[in-house]
Design goal:
Layout (H helix, E strand, L loop, with lengths): L2 E6 L5 E5 L9 H4 L3 E4 L5 E4 L12 E6 L5 E5 L3 E5 L6 E6 L2
Antiparallel strand pairs: 1-2, 2-3, 3-4, 5-6, 6-7, 7-8
């Protein structure tokens, strides 16, 4: 599994942004949920749960940990989200390009 960004969590898990850019062999549902939480054994604990984007294929392209500890992400077409690192639930917070 190749990933672009990785954020280590205090509980030993990590969040990763899986690189799916331009890879049409990845199913749309998987491409649009390309942020996952990995356990210490590197098994997937959860996939991000976010509202669907305006476009059929709208994968995540950024994953960040802000100074205040908030985990944020951005989709290719610009929607931004805050991510709950315990559950993978994502709340849309805005748009930027």
């Amino acid at each position: 599994m190749e990933y672009e960004d990785k954020i280590e969590l205090e509980n030993g898990h990590c969040l990763v942004l899986i690189d799916v850019a331009g890879n049409v062999s990845v199913p749309v549902e998987e491409a649009n949920t390309n942020i996952v939480c990995l356990g210490k054994d590197m098994n997937i604990i959860w996939r991000i749960s976010a509202p669907e984007g305006m476009h059929e294929r709208d994968s995540f392209v950024e994953l960040n940990k802000e100074k205040d500890g908030t985990i944020t992400a951005r989709r290719f077409f610009g929607n931004t989200y805050n991510i709950d690192p315990n559950t993978g639930n994502a709340e849309q917070t805005g748009w930027e390009k």
